[in-house]
Design brief:
single chain; mainly alpha; Growth Hormone, Chain: A; 18 helices; globular
């Protein structure tokens, strides 16, 4: 059973490729738009072309993981993503680029849900929280860091090497595809679908046959849809923070604290870095806390609901004057921790419907959340600025965005708490 930590390391790498893939075009956006003659609307279409099929593919991937195991689903999915990224590098028109991004979105869904289903078989209830927090926090942090920091550097290198067979962003994309493909092969070598031969369950889950709750029709269980609503509300809030926090922080440094433009942008990036630090370190920490509380009878869903309550307060504080940069940094860090409690639902689903249906149940829950998150990100700027602008206050345009995040957290916290109470009944 010590091999479970090797499996967890492989899952961290696999999930890092998922985040790297979803944001891969952003690091090369300036070069892609110039090469394919794309405007901002077309670049937005490239983003949507990934997220909607990514959301709809959650249930099929989760169900397939339950049937054949996570090892080949995850590793072959990652290799397939690498192949499609290489083909994306050959796109000559917007239609071709969108088509390849749709395929990439479908295969990239082999990450979140199948990984959670695989870890449910390797980690018992006493460790599922920290395992899900670790793969989500560390894997997501690695993938986002590479996408936002490393890819532009690679793109600049290829842009200045005209002697290469495929210069500019195309060559850089192929290098990234090779790197992701190598990780997929490594995952195939490291991962195992279950601790036992075949598709068994971990020793910690051995015992009686599935309970009546586990046998009942999954889609008729109201807990599934309550957790789906929690997920949707959490992801709506989650999409708003990375999209707006650094922009808001830079304006705050410039307009309220008198920083110059370049210094304000740099400082805003540091605030975003503190949020990411909360994400990376907070998810395993909260997961471990939930493992300890579960032993004392506290449901994981209750912990997740409290996380959204704290996030709601954090969004609310962003709507009032921030007294100092230190206060803003501390607030970003706290939101980064509290807003990433939803991987606890991965463990809760395995414990509600059993590890044999963990992939299917999480597929439905995550599909609802991902669709809501994709829609909210595209509408957030319009909604926020329309409903909360105050003439003469340049920072007021952000208030509506933060109110939207707070309201979303409130809905999610309520759904989580109702689910918790029904699960306790």
């Amino acid at each position: 059973m010590r091999y479970r930590w090797v499996v967890l390391a492989g899952c961290v790498l696999a999930y890092a490729t998922s985040h790297l893939t979803r944001w891969s075009y952003t690091g090369f956006a300036a070069y892609i738009s110039a090469d394919l003659q794309l405007d901002k609307a077309a670049l937005g279409l490239l983003g949507a072309a990934f997220f909607y099929p990514y959301a709809l593919a959650q249930v099929p991937w989760g169900s397939l993981t339950d049937r054949i195991g996570g090892r080949y689903v995850i590793s072959l999915g990652v290799v397939g993503v690498a192949a499609l990224l290489g083909l994306f590098a050959t796109a000559r028109t917007l239609g071709e680029a969108v088509g390849w991004r749709v395929g990439i979105g479908v295969l990239a869904a082999c990450g979140f849900v199948p990984i959670a289903g695989l870890l449910a078989r390797w980690f018992g209830p006493g460790e599922r929280g920290v395992a899900n927090g670790a793969y989500y926090g560390l894997g997501g942090g690695l993938g986002e860091g590479a996408a936002f920091l490393l890819l532009p550097v690679i793109g600049i290198y290829f842009l200045n090497r005209s002697d290469l067979a495929m210069p500019d962003w195309r060559g850089a994309m192929i290098v990234m595809a090779v790197f992701i493909g190598a990780i997929g092969i490594l995952c195939c070598l490291l991962l195992r679908s279950a601790p036992q031969a075949g598709l068994g369950v971990s020793a910690s889950d051995s015992g009686p046959r599935p309970s009546g709750v586990e046998r009942r029709d999954l889609l008729s269980d109201p807990i599934l849809w309550l957790l789906g609503l929690y997920f949707a509300a959490g992801i709506v809030a989650l999409r708003l923070i990375p999209g707006w926090l650094t922009i808001y922080a830079a304006d705050l440094y410039r307009l309220q604290w008198g920083y110059g433009q370049e210094a304000a942008v740099t400082a805003g990036g540091m605030i975003g870095g503190l949020y990411v630090l909360g994400h990376v370190g907070g998810s395993p920490m909260v997961g471990r806390l939930s493992d300890h509380l579960l032993e004392r009878g506290v449901n994981r869903v209750a912990v997740a609901a409290v996380g959204l309550v704290v996030s709601m307060v954090g969004f609310g504080l962003l709507t009032v004057p921030i007294p100092s940069p230190w206060a803003l940094g501390a607030l970003a860090l706290v939101i980064g921790v509290a807003l990433h409690t939803f991987p606890l639902i991965n463990a809760a689903a395995a414990e509600r419907w059993g590890v044999r249906r963990a992939g299917e149940s999480l597929g439905w829950i995550n599909m609802v959340g991902q669709l809501a998150g994709a829609v909210s990100l595209s509408l957030s700027g319009y909604v926020g600025m329309t409903f909360a602008s105050r003439p003469g206050d340049p920072l007021a345009e952000y208030s509506g965005i933060w109110y939207l995040g707070a309201a979303s957290c409130a809905v999610g916290a309520l759904a989580g708490w109702v689910a918790h109470r029904r699960m306790q009944a």
